[in-house]
Amino acid sequence: SISGAAGLLPGRQRALSASMNKWDVIAGVKGEVSLSDDDRVFMPYYLDIGSGSDNTTWQAMIALGYRYGWGDVTLALRNLSYDFSGRGEGIDARFTGLALGATFHF
Questions:
Q1: Are 91 and 84 in contact (CB under 8 A)?
Q2: Which segments within the chain are labelled E, that is strand?
Q3: pTM for the structure as a whole
Q4: Mean of pLDDT over the chain
């Protein structure tokens, strides 16, 4: 809650007051499945979903990876979705795409 006086000239001040009540909850799961006997080929995954006062969000990622002696290389497909249009105008966006990544172990 915010309150205070607004105005630069004496006698022309107005009172301002605003309050906001927001909450959000996000839950998810993350893991990895081995696809080979030597654990070199693996499939990492991630999923979360969230909701709150006026919005929802979720994201999912699945990848295929290979372990080398120096680290890992993964190719992933990821989706990230925001829906913040709860009480009127807002944002409803989805981002989907591939990602190539490397993790170095040292």
A1: yes
A2: 2-6, 14-18, 24-34, 41-52, 56-67, 71-83, 92-104
A3: 0.70
A4: 86
The pLDDT of residue 31: 97
For residue 84, the SS3 value is: coil
pLDDT band at 83 (very low <50, low <70, confident <90, very high): confident
The whole-angstrom separation of Cα 97 and Cα 75 is 11
| Sequence-distant (≥ 6) Cβ neighbours of residue 99 within 8 angstroms | 63, 74, 75, 76, 77, 78
Domain residue spans of the chain: 23-104
Mean pLDDT, range 72-87, rounded to an integer:
89
